[in-house]
Amino acid sequence: VPISARPQGTQGNRVPYTACVLPFLSIALWKERTDARSRRKHLATALLMLLLILISQSRSAWVGLAVLLAAHALLMLRNNIRAAARPAGAVALMLLGSLLIPATRQRIVSTAQNYHLSEVNISHRLASYSTVAALKGHALFGVGYGQYPQVYRPYYNGPAPWVSSPDNQYLRWLIETGIAGTIALFVFLGIIIRRGLNAISKMADPQDAELYKALLAGWAGLAATFLFFDGFYWAACNMTFWSLLWLFATCLKPRTAPE
C-alpha cells in the first residue's frame, strides 16, 4: 500500500477508517456534557477526532459529520441552548483554527473545490445508478448478495468501468437483494429507531436517555457515509454499523424500577 500523509486504517483506505472513527465523536460530545470532572479531556478528544476527520479529505466522512452533528443537536440539545453553546463553540473554533494551518487549509480547500459533477469519484457514483437496470428479471429478490461485480458492466457508462462497486451501499443492496430485501432492511431499521425513540422519551434517568441519543446520532453519521462506499463489505464498518444499532436497541429492554 503506498504511503500516504492522510489518516488511514489497516486496510490502507481512509474512507472506511474515518467512517469508523466518526460515530465515537458523538460519544465524546455526550461524555463532555455528562462527565463534569473530565469535561476538558472529553472535549479535547472530540476536537482531535474532528480534526482527524477534516484532514482525512474523505468527503463521505464530511457528509457523515454534518449528519452526525445535526442529529446530535436535534436529539440532545434542542431543549438546552446553554448546554449546546459550549461544544458548538468549541467545534466552530476547531473548524476555524484548522483553516489557519496552511497544510490543513490546503487539503480542506482542495477537496472542497472538487465538489462538482465532473469530478471522477462523483461522476462514477452518479453513473452507477444506471446499473439499476440489472434488476430486470430480478426486481423482487435481486441478483444475489455479492453479485454486483458480475452484473454491472453492461449497464455502467461512467468514467471508471474497472471499479466493480457503485460506492453506494444502499444502491448495491437494492441491486443484490431486490425490492423485497431493500424494503425489509429499511422497515427493520425504521422500527428499531421509532420504538427506540419512544422508549427513550419515557426513561426516568436523563443520562441514560442522552447516552442512547448519542448512540443514535453516531450511528446516523456512519449510516450516511454508506451512501458513498460499500460499508457492509468492510468488516470494521459492518461491525460498527450493527454494533451501534444493537447498543441503541438495548433501550427497548424493559427496565425495572430501582429498589
Q: For this entry, what is the oligomeric state of its chains?
A: single chain
Poorly predicted runs: 1-10
Query: How is the main sheet built?
Result: none
| Mass-distribution shape | flat
Q: Please provide the ordered H/E string of secondary-structure elements.
A: HHHHHHHHHHH
As a whole number of angstroms, the C-alpha radius of gyration is 20 Å
Termini separation: 57 Å
Class of secondary structure makeup = mainly alpha
Number of strands: 0
**What fraction of residues sit in β-strands?**
under 5%
Annotation field: number of helices? 11
| Helical fraction | 55-70%
State mean pLDDT (0 to 100 scale). Answer: 84
Q: How would you briefly describe this protein structure?
A:
By secondary structure, the protein is an all-alpha fold. The chain has helices at 14-21, 23-34, 39-55, 59-77, 81-100, 102-112, 120-127, 148-151, 169-201, 206-225, 235-249.
What is the topology?
Blueprint: H1 14-21, H2 23-34, H3 39-55, H4 59-77, H5 81-100, H6 102-112, H7 120-127, H8 148-151, H9 169-201, H10 206-225, H11 235-249
Helix pairs in contact: 2-3, 2-10, 3-5, 4-10, 9-10, 10-11
Question: How would you sum up this structure, described in words?
Answer:
The protein has helices at residues 14-21, 23-34, 39-55, 59-77, 81-100, 102-112, 120-127, 148-151, 169-201, 206-225, 235-249. With 259 residues, the protein is an all-alpha fold. It contains 11 helices and no strands. Helix content is 64%, strand content 0%.
